[in-house]
Amino acid sequence: MVKNSFIFLVLIGLAAILLNLFAGFNGSTELGTIAAHYASKGIEEVGSANLVTSVVVSYRGLDTLGEVTILFLSAAIIGFFLKVDNTDNKNRQLKYTSEILNTASQVLVPIMLLFGAYVFINGHLSPGGGFQGGAIIASGLVLMFIAQPKKEMGHKMINIVESVSGVSFVLLGVAGILFASGFLDNKILSLGKFGTLFSAGIIPIIYILVGLKVGSELTGIALSLKENQNEA
Amino acid sequence: MENITLQNISLAIGILVILIGLWGLLTQKNLIKIVIGFALFDTGIHIVMVSIGYIKNRTAPIIDSAVDMNNASNLVVDPIPQALVLTAIVIGLGITALMLSYVLKMYQKKKSLDITNYKDLKW
Amino acid sequence: MLSIILALFLGILILVLAVMAVQNKNIVVAIIAAGAVSLFASILYLVLAAPDVAMTEAAIGSGLSTIIFFYVLNKIKRQNG
Fold first, then answer.
1. What are the pLDDT tens digits along chain B (123 aa)?
2. pLDDT classification of A55: cutoffs 50, 70, 90
3. Tally of structural domains, chain A
């Protein structure tokens, strides 16, 4: 009883704080100074039509690098925690999936992978980008795991894709120091014509790398939670 | 009547989802339900952040035929909260998966999902 | 005006599903309800002029995280019996 009333008090306290914030909030009618700069100068400085992309990849590119590192760390910790030997995994009994799921996955998985690649290649022109494309690719691969549980897919391929894209991301950032004005500067390549596929400097290349890295990390998380389902 | 705007409604939704998530986090006994409470808390915070960046009668921060290039700062919503939320969602998935793997490990040790059975740190 | 009605409708749906995700005794129902909260939240982001966030939430919040919850639940059930 004491515990319940304590929980009730915590909830009421947080609700009071949030209500206070809600009552004092009027909504802005103008962009803040920084946001206005990004919106008005973004095209000549970065050259990307999608302003969210220009903030994520170019203006705050270092944060994106840190974020991808956090995702890598959590994937690595999950893999470390759930590491169980695969020896008695060979002769386990797996239920066969239904005919419908099997056939549909053979049609859907290639389309999903293609759509994911489309989303992260066009990240600077339309909504989308590396994170969304990577998540779509990971969903496609997870659908494949569900449909064909017998198929073995090792962590090795995933690790190689992830390491190569991560190292290239950092190397492109260092190239920005050498050939342009700073880390992850996107003026290594010319900005090109606004609104075409080959424009916005190195943003498409970085988003392809981010897409591959996020896709392989999310697939790795799902794979390590899926493996060794009957070790008990 | 002029208080009922899209921004206020979505802000209220976000705040209520935060409170529901915290309520689940504090009252539930099942470890998986606690993780679900965390996920709801996360979603609520994302809704609050996106609705703070919204500005009435403006469009998405993508410059195309609908947005004049020279007047962009008067036509689009704030892109910065959206960029923050974009990365926060991806990190949220990583954290949820990490918590679930801890749950799995705890279950393998004690064969129980009830949090009241874990008394190792109680004295 | 239309967007306000849509937001109110989505809000009621999100809150009902969130309470269901917390309160329901059946864990499978709770996981599905939490995924549905994410799905309707992604429609709300679209109304709030954030298509990038909507795409991410739809792919990650309602797709991948639901699948990860079910993988873990499946593993726990297997070890039980």
1. 566 788 888 888 999 999 999 988 888 888 899 999 999 999 999 999 888 888 887 877 887 777 777 777 777 888 888 888 988 898 888 889 899 888 888 888 888 888 888 887 776
2. confident
3. 1
Residue A62 forms part of a structural domain: yes
Residue B73's nearest CA partner among B55, B88, B85 is B55
Model ipTM?
A: 0.88
The position carrying tokens 């109110």 is C8
CA atoms within 13 A on the CB side of C6: 14
Nearest CA in chain B to A134: B90
Give the bridge partners for B76, in sequence order. Answer: B59
Residue A232 lies in a domain: no
Q: A229 vs chain C: nearest CA distance in angstroms?
A: 6
Alpha-carbon span C74 to A207, nearest angstrom? 34
The token pair that represents A228 in the structure block: 């060794």
Query: Which residue in C7, C21, C61 is closest to B10 by CB distance?
Result: C7
B6-58+74-112: CATH topology is: Helix Hairpins (1.10.287)
The end-to-end CA distance of chain B, in Å, is 55
Instruction: Kindly calculate the radius of gyration of chain B based on its CA atoms and give it in whole angstroms.
Output: 20
State the Cα–Cα distance between residues B53 and B46, nearest whole angstrom: 11
> CB-CB: which of A50, A53, A232 is closest to C79?
A232
